[in-house]
Structure prediction request, 348 residues.
Amino acid sequence: MTVKVGIVGYGTIGKRVTDAIMKMDDMTLIGVVKQTPDYEGEVAVSKGIKLYTYEDKLSKFEKVGIKVAGTVNDLLRSVDVIIDATPDGVGAENKAKLYEPAGLRAIFQGGEEAEVAETSFNALANYDMAIGKRFIRVVSCNTTALSRLISAFLLHGYKIRRVRAYLVRRGADPREFKKGPINDVVFNPATVPSHHGPDVQTVLPTIDIVTMAVAVPTTMMHLHMVNIEFDGQISRGEAIKVLEETPRILLFNASSKKFESLAQIIEWARDMGRLRGDLMENAVIEDSITVFQNELFLMQGVHQESIVVPENIDAVRAMFKLSDKWSSIKKTDTALGLVSAGKNYNLT
Prediction:
């Protein structure tokens, strides 16, 4: 079976998911929906991607000479599933106005409330919960990173007593020139716990997790400082082995390989030829991994622009029962160039 996919929203996440869909042999990209005729639309058309827009926006595209294949309703009639990558809150509106009336399936992003879908989703954490579901919500970048990290140890048989995480969030994405603090540290939010911990519990409901967050003047990546307390002791060597074996987690060494900042990690992704310099894996700082008896401490970088892309692909497979968990994760990672030596795609 080949699933026909449409993307609504062609911004930071939407264009990356679009490129990923085009690399899958069990999915076909039908087109993307844009509201604004701009350079991103021109780039999409130049790559052979069909653009759709809303009825009242057609003339704007025609005026600037950007070719449009039809309206959003034309796209909806041609697809099996929509991946909604619109701004926070818009996905829920689209569900009620567009997807439910059309009898369509849809995948939403983490900016939506959990109630928009039947299940929140992270491939390592709860792939099986999404099998056959009509509406799935891929959790946010920070929740994705935390869920992967926690799941790595659960999948290796470790029992977790509690997790405490402190998030230093980027002020805005690089393209969002009108957002973000200029010279400030913003309480993001000023409540404890921040919303990230409860969001992790939408995919890992039994985990005791508390999170705190601030936003700082950078566009590069988020940084997490994480403390995991286990029910039983763990060694530093064991923790490193777990992270080395788990898909979608990479270790970066500061002392031997001179990875001393998040900017250098993104530069590595660029040098490796990653499209747009994206890093879809958790970037765990190996030197930060420290163990005191049953407590693990570490830092990880989170590339907010791209980390959820593989999850959107796996969500499609789970929704249409195309593959089991590990086969899907490996297939996605292989197509996106994320497979590296030592990764185990048969964890239980």
Remarks:
- Residues 244 and 342 are 7 Å apart (CA to CA).
- The radius of gyration is 20 Å.
- The mean pLDDT is 96.
- The chain has two domains: 3-139+308-336, 141-302.
